[in-house]
């Protein structure tokens, strides 16, 4: 017969309680049931654990077994608590991949609610481009992502919000900076002669007039921090979604386009829900319940 955890638990309880009767009360079993379990344990080991039938004194072998059994019972109970915690999303870990603008503007308020509900989780946040977010989810290097997504095959996706595009430039830019008062009236024609810096989000804009501008550009800066640094240095102008503009330095400005069907569509991404850990499922629920429209209106 194999040694069972219950054998160890009954044995430890009898030793610590001092008698079969006291142990039976602790275990909520009859004294005869406890005695039977101890007999099976001794037969399995081939050792006598108690020096008397009253079960109040251990043999030398029983002392050694008690030391081991105490440790193993404590370890088993700790394992059960850990498993229960993970199952209830009380403990565990989660890796979240997001774009820089999401990381700085939206994720903090989502995380505030998530951490309040799950304070003991280990959380790792990585910011990267949208393409890298999707790749991280596909490779299972991240549990949940928030980004643009063209290829949604085999992934769970939930649309969170739309983010309009606009020009980003220095406030003193010679051709655009003087049009700061023309909020919402800018067109592609306004940057035809400006030095344009391409970034990763440009591929989401399919307006024919913009495609021509993008093809003429000979400078690309996929990283948002690098892009803004070049704009701040007066090298050129670019286009970004409005959410990214919330965090602009005072010397830069964001001018939304007058008319374009192209917007950045932001999705929550993960592997299929049934395969997620409870911690990841809990984050999905928190992210989907957040009122993005109200938040974006407030920020603007």
From TrEMBL:
Its recorded name reads: LysR family transcriptional regulator
Name the domain of life this protein comes from.
Answer: Bacteria
Task: Tell me which UniProt keywords the record has, alphabetically.
Answer: DNA-binding, Transcription, Transcription regulation
* Cellular component GO terms held in the UniProt record: cytosol
| Molecular functions per Gene Ontology | DNA binding; DNA-binding transcription factor activity
Question: Which residue positions does the secretion signal occupy?
Answer: none
**Domain annotation HTH lysR-type: ranges:** 3-59
Query: Pfam families, alphabetically?
Result: HTH_1, LysR_substrate
Q: Which family does it belong to?
A: Belongs to the LysR transcriptional regulatory family.
Recorded hits in InterPro entries, A to Z, give:
HTH-type_LysR_regulators (IPR050950), LysR_HTH_N (IPR000847), LysR_subst-bd (IPR005119), WH-like_DNA-bd_sf (IPR036388), WH_DNA-bd_sf (IPR036390)
């Amino acid at each position: 017969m194999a040694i069972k955890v219950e054998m160890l638990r009954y044995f430890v309880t009898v030793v610590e309680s001092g008698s079969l009767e006291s142990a039976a009360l602790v275990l909520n079993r009859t004294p005869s049931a406890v005695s039977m379990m101890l007999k099976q344990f001794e037969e399995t080991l081939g050792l006598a654990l108690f020096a008397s039938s009253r079960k109040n004194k251990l043999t030398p072998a029983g002392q050694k077994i008690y030391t081991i059994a105490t440790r193993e019972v404590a370890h088993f109970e700790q394992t059960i608590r850990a498993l229960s915690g993970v199952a209830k999303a009380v403990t565990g870990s989660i890796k979240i991949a997001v774009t820089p603008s999401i990381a700085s503007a939206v994720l903090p308020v989502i995380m505030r609610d998530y951490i309040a509900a799950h304070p003991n989780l280990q959380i790792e946040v990585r910011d990267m481009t949208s393409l890298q977010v999707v790749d991280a989810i596909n490779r299972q290097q991240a549990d949940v992502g928030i980004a643009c997504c063209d290829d949604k095959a085999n992934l769970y996706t939930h649309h969170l919000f739309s983010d309009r595009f606009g020009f980003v430039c220095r406030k003193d830019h010679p051709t655009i900076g003087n049009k700061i008062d023309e909020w919402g009236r800018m067109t592609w024609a306004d940057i035809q002669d400006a030095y344009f810096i391409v970034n990763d989000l440009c591929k989401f804009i399919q307006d024919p007039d913009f495609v021509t501008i993008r093809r003429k550009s000979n400078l690309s800066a996929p990283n948002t921090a690098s892009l803004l640094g070049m704009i701040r240095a007066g090298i050129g102008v670019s286009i970004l979604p409005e959410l990214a503009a919330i965090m602009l330095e005072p010397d830069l400005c964001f001018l939304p386009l007058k008319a374009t069907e192209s917007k950045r569509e932001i999705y929550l991404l993960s592997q299929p829900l049934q395969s997620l850990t409870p911690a990841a499922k809990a984050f999905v629920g928190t992210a989907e319940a957040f009122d993005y429209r109200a938040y974006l209106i407030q920020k603007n």
